[in-house]
Write a structure and sequence with these properties.
Two copies of one chain form a homodimer. With 408 residues, chain A is α/β, with parallel strands linked by helices. Chain A contains 13 helices and twelve strands. In chain A, α5 crosses α9. The longest helix of chain A is centred in the last third of the chain and has 20 residues. Chains A and B meet through α1, α2, α3, α5 and α6 of A and α1, α2, α3, α5 and α6 of B. Chains A, B: One of its GO terms (molecular function) is transaminase activity.
């Protein structure tokens, strides 16, 4: 196998969220037990942005249409995004994170947060570097590092039984830095586990990063969707060397604007500068007309965000209630975001077969835990940003199938 | 300088089209002669998509809005793009290029043709590889190769005095393949020179690629905008090994849809597969709602494309007429696309200073030839997809400033 074949073999997307439709023929090798269970199909691999679930921010389409009518100035922005818009977003993000942001020097608009992640990592890491990656964490983090020919140094997140902590293993983290990791990439809230890093954990990350001169890329995609009682600490507002931190956000999740492909990275200008240069050869810019939609961001109608959070919290609680009825199914209540990451009891079939059975027999699509950590062979991820009733029905079917395939 | 600093130093975007606004302070070091010349400002660095020039395809915004109303299925497509849409586009491109395309296996939608180029090159080339690149050619080609740590092997395009040929130096090309270039990347029509490769040249490229087992990536972004008398040969419809060719197109130029960031790559399924895997970690997918706009592609109102081509041809002819009045200004009439690449007479100031003078003194933005070839230190590129009258006025001011700064 050539170097490039090897590299792409590690980039497998067959089990990535939304790609299940491309799996061909393989269901023949899974032995299914019993009848199909009827019910409204639910695709928990991503959020549902239909009007029956969580529609995009009010006014977003109108902003887009106005952008189109502005013509060339909106279609052809600077590679890093329209200047006036960057200033506007920078002040909102400064207020949100509690730390200044310069719209001209420290912020770039990208095609989705995925674009921001790629640009941030590829502007920081080269082949041979070591990068500390949390297990479990967003599936693309590991793939980005590996694609660049760099080495993943795993850091455990013990998200069960960690009290008020997310459960980051800080000894692992310091060991990773000691053995030469120059970059730390993590999501907060954690995707898939839904835990929020405590203030103590974030302060310790900042301290270790300063001590070892490590660049930290923090994906805060879900940091607006906090459930009651959750305290959130922005890494960039700590004592961390501001020249070594990039924060990533975007309106694709809580705001349901994924169809516009918008993301934002902000932080160290030396890295934002590189990201713009790289964006120039990767995609030129975040889609020009779509950029206009960011005017709705942090500018939603009064009460809209509170209601959206309350709706998600209600779904979360009902799903946790359903899952509590299955013996041995272990799940930590997420403090933020819309992911549940239950650990299943021992089953008679491998995880990937069970995931297939859920889809074929119960009309329920979930993402196998192995996308997030090679060790998560007993977990599934659900994005519960769904129609409330349909989600509860689907969770009930998951419990039924667990019972059906449960090892004696 | 560290490896990553070096890599990004070569990715400079200061003179890239549209980035001129980020140049700071440096105009003080340019000694300007004479008064400013009044006139409507024209930005020739990219096409003008305003209604006073070349507006997007009729019905494009309506298709977008319908896409938004389709909700989740349009927002969350497979990474390679919505399946039904890929089938539809595949048949159109098969008809256009005269060679079958499979929508399910051989086509991917990308964020702009820039996205397609990046994915194609990064799916083909690894550090240490050699890649044949035409001089001059699209500025990102060289940068993509260098960013991946690969080596550019230049191939000359003698676009002046080449009769019915584009002027590709086929000896250079074979020499590049002989010395180990495994990939050949080029644009047809050529950006910036506007020349179309003859059938003989394309057949010879195919033959050499087969002989040496070279993968060819051909950027055909402008292949719909052909002026009268131009014959176009699609590389993929020749005897070239179909497993070794990827064709790139998109609706950003002739169709003025750049604000939607849409591109398409089609060809060898082994490479399209890799491109999808890479897209999954770079930007996930072409913007979901924007994908819907591709329904207008190759489906424009009757007569619309003919008229658009005629309008561009009329501007081309008027600009050539203006430039013919400047002694020693040399320009080949483009056979396709909307670029002029005139070679200027010897000036009293360096090219980059003259480009600055054009902007400051004449309100005219052009792209210096050095973006397209290190040898093009005496040329400027103009995208003449502009308001007709404004473009002619701006060309007249260019001629005036050439006379002003011309070496005795």
């Amino acid at each position: 196998m050539s170097l490039i074949e090897e590299r792409f073999a590690r980039l497998a997307t067959d089990n990535a969220p939304g790609q299940e439709v491309r799996q061909t023929g393989a269901s023949g090798d899974v032995t299914l037990i019993g009848e199909n269970i009827p019910g409204t199909p639910v695709d928990f691999s991503h959020g549902d942005v239909n009007t029956s679930a969580f529609a995009p921010t009010p006014g977003s389409l109108e902003e887009f249409v106005q952008g189109v009518h502005r013509g060339g100035q909106q279609a052809y922005t600077e590679y890093r995004g329209a200047a006036a818009l960057r200033d506007e977003i920078a002040s909102k993000l400064a207020r949100f994170t509690g730390c200044p942001v310069s719209g001209s020097a420290e912020l770039i608009l990208t095609p989705g947060t995925q674009g921001a992640l790629f640009l941030a990592v590829a502007s920081t890491v080269v082949a041979g570097d070591k990068v500390a990656i949390v297990r479990p964490d967003y599936f693309a983090n590991r793939k980005l590092v590996e694609f660049l020919g760099a080495e993943v140094v795993p850091v455990r997140l013990d998200y069960f039984d960690s009290g008020s902590q997310a459960g980051l293993n800080l000894d692992d983290l310091e060991a990773a830095f000691k053995q030469g990791a120059t970059t730390f990439l993590f999501s907060n809230p954690n995707n898939p586990a839904g835990v929020v890093y405590s203030e103590a954990e974030i302060l310790q990350i900042a301290k270790l990063a300063n001590t070892y001169g490590v660049t930290v890329i923090v994906d805060q995609l879900y940091s607006r969707l906090l459930y009651s009682g959750t305290h959130y600490t922005h890494l960039r507002a700590t004592e961390i060397d501001s020249d070594n931190v990039v924060t990533i956000m975007g309106p694709s999740k809580t705001e349901s604007l994924s169809g516009y492909r918008l993301g934002v990275a902000f932080g160290a200008s030396r890295l934002i500068d590189r990201m713009e240069k790289l964006q120039a050869i990767v995609s030129l810019r975040a889609p020009g007309y779509c950029q206009a939609v960011l005017r709705t961001w942090f500018n939603e109608p009064s009460g809209w965000m509170d209601e959206r959070i309350a709706q998600h919290q209600a779904i979360r609680d009902d799903l946790l209630n359903v899952f509590s009825k299955s013996a041995d199914l272990q799940v930590r209540s997420p403090q933020a975001g819309s992911y549940l990451f239950p650990r299943l009891p021992k089953l008679t079939i491998p995880l990937h077969h069970f995931v297939r059975a859920l889809r074929v027999q119960a009309g329920v699509t979930v993402t196998p835990g192995t996308e997030f950590s090679p060790n998560s062979i007993d977990s599934i991820r659900l994005n519960f940003s769904q129609n409330h009733e349909a989600a509860v029905g689907a969770a009930t079917r998951i419990v039924q199938l667990i019972e059906r395939y449960r090892a004696a």
